[in-house]
Design goal:
The protein is mainly alpha-helical and 185 residues long. It contains eight helices and five strands; from the N terminus they run αβααββααααββα. The longest helix is centred in the C-terminal third of the chain and has 40 residues, at 145-184. β4 and β5 (135-136) form a beta hairpin. α1 (2-12) packs across α4 (72-83), α1 runs parallel beside α6 and α7 (109-124) packs antiparallel against α8 (145-184). The strands form two sheets. It has a three-stranded antiparallel sheet with strand order 1-3-2. The model has no long low-confidence stretch (mean pLDDT 92). It is globular, with a radius of gyration of 20 Å.
């Protein structure tokens, strides 16, 4: 998810490493902090692979600063990753939120909707943190107060997300239909 975040934020505009780290921290740092030991090697890999461009600029008051920008290959890579996310990026809540943060960069509403439909299918499958004889345990049947809380919070969050997905998919389907009419009209 770190590479997706780097590509996604640099799609928006060139940034210095520190600015990039701050944006990534704002997106997911409260859940998964980003260390310099993870960020800078990831940046180096992306530069080496031709996905990022790096240039040195004079610093405002001291040392020169390195500015990172997305190369054309990096742009293509970002769009490919957004169009076809890995399964974990659909099923893991934090990873999905990272994907969602950049999904608007995909130009085609049908591609955006396809990703949301994958998440919707995942959320509609019966699941729980706890199982009894292979059956998901529902909050009402869980005697432990704290596990019951986990299940109730997850259900409420899931209900809200499902409602949003339904609304978003209706809007994206309307956009896709309008774009299709514009091409055929």
């Amino acid at each position: 998810m770190l590479e997706l975040s780097i590509l996604g934020f640099l799609y928006e505009k060139p940034l210095h490493g520190y600015e990039l780290k701050e944006r990534i921290h704002g997106l997911s740092g409260h859940v998964r902090p980003v260390s310099d030991g993870a960020l800078y090697p990831a940046i180096a890999r992306l530069v080496k692979n031709g996905l990022l461009d790096s240039r040195v600029e004079p610093g405002t008051s001291a040392a020169p600063r390195r500015t990172l920008s997305l190369s054309p290959e990096g742009r293509s890579e970002l769009l490919a990753r957004l169009r076809s996310p890995k399964e974990a990026e659909i099923t893991d809540g934090q990873r999905f939120f990272t994907l969602l943060a950049f999904l608007g960069h995909l130009p085609d509403p049908a591609d955006q909707a396809a990703v949301l439909r994958r998440r919707q299918e995942f959320l509609n499958a019966p699941a729980s943190f706890f199982y009894e004889d292979g059956t998901p345990v529902r909050a009402e049947r869980e005697p432990d107060l704290f596990r019951q809380g986990m299940l109730r919070i997850a259900r409420a969050t899931g209900t809200a997300e499902k409602a949003w997905l339904t609304e978003a998919l209706a809007e994206l389907d309307a956009r896709a239909a309008a774009a299709g009419q514009g091409l055929s009209g």
